[in-house]
Structures are given as structure tokens and as C-alpha cells.
Amino acid sequence: MIERELVITNKLGLHARATAKLVQVLAPYRCNATLTAKGREVNAKSIMGVMLLAAGQGTPVVLRVEGEDAEAAAEAVGALFERRFDEDS
Question: Where is the HPr domain (predicted)?
């Protein structure tokens, strides 16, 4: 199991477009992935689950991935967060 602490830095937080990108990034991986924020844990591969976090800019989240390609999935999600979901230019 891999656990990474991330902070949402894009202006709009985990809104619909950012959430869709997150789910798309994780889709090809066979691992299980969860996001935890504000005391809630959700399936990171579920658009509805991630939207329920209502995580805005500055919110710390914990990504937990488990399975055969967990390291690659964690790297891909980390890169997406670093790029601010490709929203800020």
C-alpha cells in the first residue's frame, strides 16, 4: 500500500472537470485507490465519490493506492496534482 499526502492547489478545487481528470488518470490502473479529506474516505475512481469530498483549493488530501500497479498510479496522480489538473496557465 502506498499513501501520499497531497494538497489541492488549483483555483477551483476538485470540481467536475478536475474530478473527471483524476478518475480518467486512474482508470487504466488495476489498483484500488481512495482519497481522504475532511474526515471522509471515498473511492478515487468514482466521480460521484470524489465530488462528495467538496474539496476546495488548499484542502489537504491523502491518496491511498493498493495493488499491482499502485506505484505507477500514485506517480500519475501526484503529477496531475502538481500540474494543477492542467487548469492554471
Answer: 1-88
